[in-house]
Design goal:
By secondary structure, the protein is mainly α. Helices cover 61% and strands 10% of the residues. It is built from 11 helices and 3 strands.
Amino acid sequence: MRLSLDRLKKLEGLERELKVRFQNHNLLNLALIHRSYSRETPKALSLDNQRLEFLGDAIINLVVSEHIYKKYPQFEEGKLSKIKAVVVSGQVLSQVARKLGVGDYLLLGRGEEESKGREKSSLLADSLEAVTGAVYLDGGYEKTRKFVLKHLSEDLKKVAKSEEGEDYKSILQEYIQKRYKTLPFYEVIGEEGPPHQRRFTVRVRVKKKILGIGKGSRKQEAEQKSAKEALKLLRS
């Protein structure tokens, strides 16, 4: 797929955000082609980012697993698994993608464009995985390892430090499913502060019963804190 000069310049702008340089810009462009665009655009030649997404998912898991294995020798397998599960989750990856502005560079079909696909968490997380796959094919493992850790280091530190990687949401979900045969529901009930210093208030409930409320600089952090409060209540 031959890139126009305008598209190439736009991709170079994304490179600056990603802090990585591509030798083959077609790989980066492919990582940003959603299947909806491919289906509607004959020139796309049925190409989309799904295969790169598959590759990138595996690489992110490997990089994060290797990093926490070496960084935290005091943690047993269970704690390492919990840390990894949070850091490689769609929610964290979509937040990183938003921060990098990946959504602005996606090629979407008309339907996805109209349904605000650029803002969808699942689509953004998938795109970041695809970009990671493209980085790997373009520059190899070491370049990709640095790329992944550069953009996930903050979350890795926070999750490992916060209760040594305890994933209260997963624990609460398992507890609620066993006891009540349903799932907990999280909802944002407050947002304050400027865009770069947002504070979120989240509550978790089962049906109509509120079990816990938490606050944090990210929705995920607030959800984890509300889940922790819920577990305290239920266990008492």
